[in-house]
Batch of 4 targets.
Target 1
Amino acid sequence: MIAAALAVAAGNAMAVEISPATTPADANMVDVATLAPGFVLDMRYATTDNFTGRVVPGYEAPRCYLLQPVAQALARVQNALRAQGYTLQLFDCYRPAHSVKSFVAWAHDLSDQQAKARYYPNVDKSRLLDGYIAETSGHSRGATLDLGLLQCRQGDCQPLDMGTGFDRFDPLAHTASPDITAAQQHNRRLLLDAMGAEGFANYPMEWWHFTFKPEPTPDTAYDFPVR
């Protein structure tokens, strides 16, 4: 997710201080892939496959860092899902504060419309800063992440149909959207229930967006690069 619509409701409008931490260890963050097997890393902002069309500043490697208690909770979700034949597809985890600023700069550049058809076909880009992109993000606090769910059979894992892709700026992406199929609603519920069982709260405007509650460092954001 990029910092989603209605930022106050998402908890993104609170004042935070930037930590002096320069590494994950300094911030008590860990790479979640080291805690449980089978995570599928699809870290979009470390590639050009995202709404900006370019590698996002601050993303130097496709890794998922989270504060230690958050990462441990996510590992428990992963282990429970693997026992049921599923696995987690990780899109974004900790996000440096300066990466968020690059999203805002992109939103201000109305001449760049290359991603419109895929990510915001029904929303004018000039309106993205009215709610879809916020100036601060819960991701920078190390307790928020974006993810999907894959079903695995005989070693082959395929994404479940959630009704929209990741980072789709559209009412169809609202978790409880009535305009998706029953099967898509069921798939969203699978993810919602699995994450909720370990303390992750969904942001209702984005089916992929979850925050661990209570946040370990709600007043602190981080800005070291993902590498």
Target 2
Amino acid sequence: MTPFPILTASFLFLLFCVAPPLTTAATDTDSPTAYSLLQSYNFPVGILPKGVVSYDLDESTGKFHAYFDKSCTFALQDSSYQLDYKSTISGYISENKITKLTGVKVKVLFLWLNIVEVIRNGDELEFSVGITSANFAIEEFYESPQCGCGFDCDGLKSESDDSGRNPFVSSV
């Protein structure tokens, strides 16, 4: 048996220990979750649905990718609008701002529009689809929705809770 496998393993171990990675990935058990990472940039966890299996982040640029096992669609506010998260979403994150977001859509009336930016301004979040935006109170995002059913997974919401409001219809 030659010492080559031992030398190779030692070299790889040394390389990974000495050279710092350019990105942070959620594959390490000591890495923060995608949800705690959001909080470190001053965003609530609820802007991401449950089910993120991994992510990567280039800390020098803020470029990120979040990965789900499959796409994720659910309705909010008693079906006044629907959200669709692709199996991979990406963008750039910085304190209070997510820009160049891809992979997240909202259904407005009969059109699917891409959400391209999320900005936190005090106790509000502004979601932009490019041509218009809508503001929501931050407390609406303290919990993550669940794929398929959003927040109404137990069927506990009553029909009287429906405000009939679709915030993406009018421009802010």
Target 3
Amino acid sequence: MVSEPGPPLPFFVYGTLRPGEANHDLFLRGRVAAEQPARLPGAALYDGPGHPYAIERPGGEIQGELVTARPESYAELLAALDRLEEYVPGDPRSLYERVARHVLRTADATPVRAWVYLAAPRVAAGLRATGTRIEGGDWRSRN
């Protein structure tokens, strides 16, 4: 699988890639230069089987981390995260879409453009209809 080309943006992670969660060490250990708390405005978080989905929603907000890859690890990390999120550019069967969005650093509300994996349109439609929204937009507070 080939990831679409794009600028070397940081990643906004909001679920199993957050520190302390199942995929954090598996995918991010040794590949990251910095992690800092951030939030994604204009989105809502939904519970999926084993992982969350973000969908665009005016007035909503998702809590997460802004992850900056080490320059020498960026291409490898981008490809690994695309595989994890089952994202294939242009494939209608993809579960997520990788899109560039502005997220806000929690410490100072500075906007930073970052890659975000949002639920693909067909998945988002199902979540809006019958999904379980995680109130407060924080994956860690789901239970």
Target 4
Amino acid sequence: MNQAPTLLLIDDDLDDQEIFELAVREANSSMQCVYASSGFEALELLENDPSFLPEYIFIDLNMPRMDGRKCLVEIRKMPRLNNVPLIIYSTAEDERSHMETKEMGASKYIVKPSSLSALVDTLAELFKVSI
């Protein structure tokens, strides 16, 4: 039985989660979204459910308690997720954030687009091209 492809979005902003899901549905209607509202929640989900293996993990940088950088480092410590692209999805546009997260193991860095259509285009391209 084929399971629908899944992605995990780690973002504390519920509005951003909703917009992201709308864009994902338009970019790839078969893709399922799972959400974690904090780095701690994401790590708990990934550690406690070994059968959960998303195709992509998107991580917001600016979250309270555990920021995206720390979350990225912790996820990279999980061998079963070595082949899962970890994508930073943030409003931070500075080159330093891009470079730091790449060195920490991020597969890609996407600046949150200002429009839904731009996000749809970005995600459609990402899903079409394997990282």
